[in-house]
Description:
alpha+beta; Structural Genomics Hypothetical 15.5 Kd Protein In mrcA-pckA Intergenic Region, Chain A; Pseudouridine synthase; 3 domains; 4-stranded antiparallel β-sheet; 7 helices; about 30% strand
Amino acid sequence: MLDQNIFLITDEKEQIRIDKLLAEKFASKSRSYFQYLIENGSVLVNSKKVKKRFSPKMNDEIEIFFQALPDISLKAQNIPLDIIFEDEHILAINKPSNMVVHPASGNWDNTFVNALLYYFKDLIYEKTDIRPGIVHRLDKDTTGVLIAAKTTQAHQKLIELFKNRQMQKTYLAITLNTPKDQIINLPIARHKIKRKEMAISQGGKEAISEIKLLKNNNKLSFIEISPKTGRTHQIRVHLKHINCPILGDETYGNKSVNKHFKVDRQLLHAHSLKFNHPITQKAITITAPINENFKKFIEILS
C-alpha cells in the first residue's frame, strides 16, 4: 500500500515550484525524487496531475503518493569518458553522441551518471537522487561539453550559474539552407499534440538564440549558435522555425535530406562553455573538439 500525504498550501509557500517546495517540506527526500513522483503522476494538485515547474497557489491541496524508485540502484559502470577538464570541484567531458546524461525511463543504465559514479567513487549523493553531480543536460545525440559537479558546494553554485545565465554557451551545427546572422527571440513550449516535442508558442517561455553563419554552399551551412536561455530542444526548434533544421535531426529535421547525406544523428555540438569557476571564481573556458564525422561536413563546405 502506498504511503499517502495530503496538505494545503499556506501563503508563505505560495509561488514556489512544487518540486522545490516538496523537497523543502520533506527534507529526507531529494528534489529529483519528487520530480520522479511528479513525472509519474504521483503528485496531485487539487486532484490533478501537474508538471515539476508548476507553482501552487494559496489553499491548493497537494496529494502525494510516496513510492519506491524503480530498482535502478545507480550502479557504477566502467564507461570510457573523454575528460577535457578536471579539478577537485568539477569535471567536464566531451560527450559522445548516443550517450544519455542521467537515468530515466527507457535508459536506466549506461548513462553519464553511471560512468561518473565509476570514475569518481567518492561522489556523495542521496539514495533517492538519480542525477548525482548533474547540473545541466545535453540531448542524447548532441555531442560536446558536459559538466558535472564533484562536491555539493560546486553542484549548488553551478546550478545557480546556469539559472542566472552566467554560462556563456557556444554550439556548432551543420544545417540545411543558409541562415542569416540573427538573434531569434521566440518563446518555446511543449507541442500541443506531439508531447515529446517542443514548439514555438506565444504562451511559452522566453527563448533566445544568437546565430552566426561561418560557411555555406547552396545546400548546407556551418553555423555557430549562442543560446542565451536553456529551453528544452531550443536550438533545434529555433532552427527548424527559420527553415534551417540541423542535418541529421530525426525529430525536427528533414528525413529525406538526412537519408541523402547518410546522417542518422544530429550534427549539433556543444563547443564551449565560458564562466567563472564556481569555487575559485577564476574565469575559465572549456572547449570540446569536434568529432571526425562533423569535420567531414565542414570540409565539404570549405
